[in-house]
Design goal:
With about 140 residues, this protein is mainly α. It has one domain. About 75% of the residues lie in helices and about 0% in strands. The longest helix is centred in the C-terminal third of the chain and has 27 residues.
Amino acid sequence: MKTKFLIAGLTGGVFYFFLGWLVYGVLLMNYYKSNTLHYDGLNREMPIMWMLALSNLFMGYFLAYVFDNWAKISTLRDGFFAGLIIGLFTSIIYDLSFLSMMNLMNIRVTLVDIIVSGVVLGLVGAVVGWVLGMGKKVE
């Protein structure tokens, strides 16, 4: 396995973890709480942090794999736009599916979540692309 792939995936996963904490856990926490229905037992008092970290690492490595092996992305700019598209499509898929089957979030927070998730994953993709391109000559 290539060292850059390993470093890019790890860096992307760690960045995703802390960016997610900042965006969802600090900046937008009250917005999500006020636009989400709450049921007894729905949310844990504290997340299982190792599972959350593992999930974020898998996303970092997913982006690193796609960028390095299929898309040949190795710039901050290309990583951002690829991450943005992946984030938008995946959040549209999951958010609309959840909206169609559950009384959990309203349409307003669903649309905000799609945009926010796209931008967050775009930023993660930018980091992954940047790491994959480190040391390459610019032509």
